[in-house]
């Protein structure tokens, strides 16, 4: 059964995702769409679904509309880009703190098992590498699911949760918990349970590992940006 | 059918001219253009809105949200004093183009 309200909100959703239309623009287009559908329903024998298809066709496709609106709404476009950049930064920082807290927890377990100082350094490094590899694997599988089977399980699960609670957890609980454990609790516990020289030798290994990790991250990021830039350029040519 | 370039170039004077009759909203403006041009000027409906917003940013029109008789939310646009001046300038230019072409085409057999 065709649901007009749902069809309209899905169609407008494409424009919202384009990021160049502001809320009043969307409202205005919705008003136009509904008026056209009503008019078509009155003046022709079209069904509601057919009228919807004709009206959206007349309004234009979402991609070219987004492009036209982007010429007028420069600030909205930059707001959208800034949102993505901030989300990326947030995800990176969360990952960094999670890594710090989790690897130090592994080291602490190593201390409990009575391992030597240089071993503790290697545990620190290996734990970080294992967590990063695990996260990449999970993300990869999530994307694969998205590509093969429509809406992913994760998306459905997130939608089921109360939005307000998710926001609260993401903006307050998770950051404070991770920062607290990565920068206060775990370093303090370790510094107190290891002798100064053991702590020093553990840190020497960690310093080298951090160096390698930073270089890898930067090289990876640079490759990613380069790839995006080159693919963007060929798209431009294709369109021209 | 009128070419894309000409549709784009004439959009501003057409919208401003329609608004001289009083305030109006997107859907009604498009219907009027469709009717006046005998369906020969086909706008992609959605493209009118960026044009209206640009005119508003330039101070040529002003807008307000209001409820229609069927209590639907609509954004109404009306001409400002600056918009009227702009229309007068555009009118002069288009009339010049029109009279030039008319004179050129007076005695061209293949065009009559």
Count of discrete alpha- or pi-helical segments spanning 4 or more residues of chain B: 4
Q: Could you tell me the mean pLDDT of chain B? A: 91
Largest β sheet strand count, sense and barrel closure of chain B: 3 strands, antiparallel
Q: How many beta strands in the DSSP annotation of chain B?
A: 3
Protein chains sharing the most extensive interface = A-B, 20 and 17 residues
User: Low-confidence parts of chain A, pLDDT < 50 over ≥5 residues?
Assistant: 234-240
Order of helices and strands of chain B: HEHHEEH
The first-to-last residue Cα distance of chain A is 41 Å
Outline the biggest β-sheet of chain A. none
The rough form of chain A would be described as elongated
**Total number of distinct structural domains of chain B:** 1
Portion in beta strands of chain B: 5-15%
Specify the helix fraction band of chain A.
over 70%
> What is the succession of H and E elements of chain A?
HHHHHHHHH
- Helices of chain A, by number, come to 9
Quick one: CATH superfamily of chain B?
A: Winged helix-like DNA-binding domain superfamily/Winged helix DNA-binding domain
Residue share in β-strands of chain A: under 5%
State the CATH topology of chain B. Answer: Arc Repressor Mutant, subunit A
């Amino acid at each position: 059964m065709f649901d007009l309200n749902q069809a309209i909100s899905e169609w407008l959703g494409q424009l919202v995702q384009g990021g160049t239309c502001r809320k009043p623009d969307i409202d205005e287009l919705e008003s136009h769409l509904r008026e056209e559908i009503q008019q078509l329903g009155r003046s022709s024998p079209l069904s509601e679904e057919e009228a919807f298809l004709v009206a959206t066709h007349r309004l234009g496709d979402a991609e070219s509309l987004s492009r036209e609106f982007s010429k007028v709404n420069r600030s909205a476009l930059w707001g959208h880009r800034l949102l993505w950049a901030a989300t990326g930064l947030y995800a990176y920082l969360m990952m960094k703190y999670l890594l710090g807290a989790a690897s130090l927890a592994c080291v602490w377990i190593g201390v409990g098992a009575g391992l030597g100082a240089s071993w503790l350094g290697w545990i620190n490094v290996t734990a970080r590498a294992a967590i990063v590899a695990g996260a990449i694997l999970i993300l990869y599988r999530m994307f694969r699911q998205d590509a093969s089977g429509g809406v992913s399980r994760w998306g459905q699960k997130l939608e089921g949760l109360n939005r307000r609670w998710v926001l609260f957890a993401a903006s307050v609980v998770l950051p404070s918990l991770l920062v607290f454990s990565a920068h206060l609790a775990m370093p303090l516990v370790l510094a107190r349970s290891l002798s100064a020289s053991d702590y020093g030798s553990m840190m020497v290994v960690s310093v080298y590992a951090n160096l390698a990790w930073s270089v890898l991250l930067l090289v990876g990021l640079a490759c990613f940006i380069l790839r995006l830039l080159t693919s963007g350029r060929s798209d431009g040519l294709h369109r021209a | 059918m009128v070419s894309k370039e000409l549709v784009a170039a004439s959009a501003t004077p057409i919208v401003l001219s329609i608004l001289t009759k009083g305030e109006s909203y997107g859907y009604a403006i498009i219907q009027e253009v469709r009717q006046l041009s005998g369906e020969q000027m086909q706008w992609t409906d959605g493209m009118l809105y960026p044009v209206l917003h640009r005119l508003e940013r330039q101070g040529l029109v002003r807008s307000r949200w209001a409820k229609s008789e069927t209590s639907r939310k609509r954004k109404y646009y009306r001409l400002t004093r600056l918009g009227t001046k702009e229309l007068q300038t555009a009118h002069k230019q288009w009339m010049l183009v029109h009279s030039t072409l008319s004179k050129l085409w007076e005695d061209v057999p293949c065009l009559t």
